[in-house]
Amino acid sequence: MMRAMRQRLLSLVVALPVLILLWFLAGLIGAVIPSGEAPEGTARTVEIRLVAAPLHYDVLLPPTPETLAMLAFAEDAGLPLSDPSTGWILVGWGAREFYISSAAYADMEVGATLRAISGDASVLRVEPWPDFDPGMAGAGAKVLHVTPDGYAALLAGIAGSTTGEVIRGAGLSDRDRFFDGTGRFNILRTCNVWVGEMLRAAGLRFGSWTPTPQAVRLALSLYVE
Predict the structure, then answer these.
(1) Is residue 31 a contact partner of residue 210, using CB atoms and an 8 Å limit?
(2) Is the pLDDT of residue 85 over 70?
(3) Where do the domains of the chain lie?
(4) Lowest pLDDT segment from 15-29, 44-58, 103-117, 184-198
(5) Longest CA span, the chain
(6) Which contacts qualify for 98-101: CB closer than 8 Å, 24 or more apart?
(7) Rounded CA gap, 106 and 55, in Å?
(8) Quick check: 211 and 192 in contact, CB under 8 A?
(9) What are the CA-CA distances from residue 170 to residues 33, 50, 96, 102, 199 (Å)?
(10) Which DSSP helix (H) or strand (E) runs through 134?
(11) ∠ CA 151-154-156, rounded to 5°
């Protein structure tokens, strides 16, 4: 019996890297397959940005009246979103335990990682940022333009990704807040998949399935000017 258990464990150890590689490659294929189409003849006058974190992408929103109204729950939780010094508002979605505890690869915990893979509750992170030049060294921001209707759809998608209930004591800095999310996080619907969903909701042509930051980068290079 012990021998059989050891063989199963060895098989799992051997198979796991293969499964991870297949998942990674599937994400690149999903990034290449396009989905969504921006309406023709409508000016894309609203600027948004994407910023790459070590593990995923976040969306930067301009602090317009529409944005502030949608994120009123975050300002009620103490974030100075309407302060004149706020140039952008970062939003990101992810696995509750993993996102709250993992700012970088070095912070990854086995339990949080396994829960994220198998399925976890979700959270939305909100953080005010000062204005900055996306072309400056280290900024690493991708500038995107959407239509006003597309931006309204993007805001609706973000609003639908959270209950608005703040998670007390959770934050990666002294300037952000985490809020209860809607929908569950798993290996098939990651934070980067959520980013793709939001961009397609905004009317942008993008990869159909982008589970990794590499997949997001590939889709950006293929479909976003």
Answers:
(1) yes
(2) yes
(3) 2-223
(4) 103-117
(5) 68
(6) 98/185, 99/123, 99/125, 99/178, 99/191, 100/167, 100/170, 100/172, 100/178
(7) 11
(8) yes
(9) 36, 23, 10, 12, 27
(10) none
(11) 115
- Structure tokens belonging to residue 112: 């949080």
Residue scoring higher pLDDT (68 or 7): 68
Whole-Å CA distances, 138 to 141, 142, 208, 211: 9, 12, 29, 24
Pairing of strands 141-146, 34-35: unpaired
Q: 195: which 2 tokens?
A: 């980013």
- Residue 106, amino acid: A
Give the C-alpha distances (Å, rounded to integers) separating 173 from 40, 94, 137, 170, 210: 41, 16, 22, 9, 27
Give residues with Cβ within 8 angstroms of 140, minimum separation 6: 51, 52, 134
Q: How big is the chain, counted in residues?
A: 225
Rounded CA separation 77/46 (Å): 27
HEC profile for 68-124?
HHHCHHHHHCCCCCCCCCCCEEEEEEEEHHHHHHCCCHHHCCHHHHHHHHHCEEEEE
- Predicted TM-score (pTM) of the model is 0.86
Look up residue 46 and give its two tokens: 């609203």
* 8 Å CB contact between 201 and 184: no
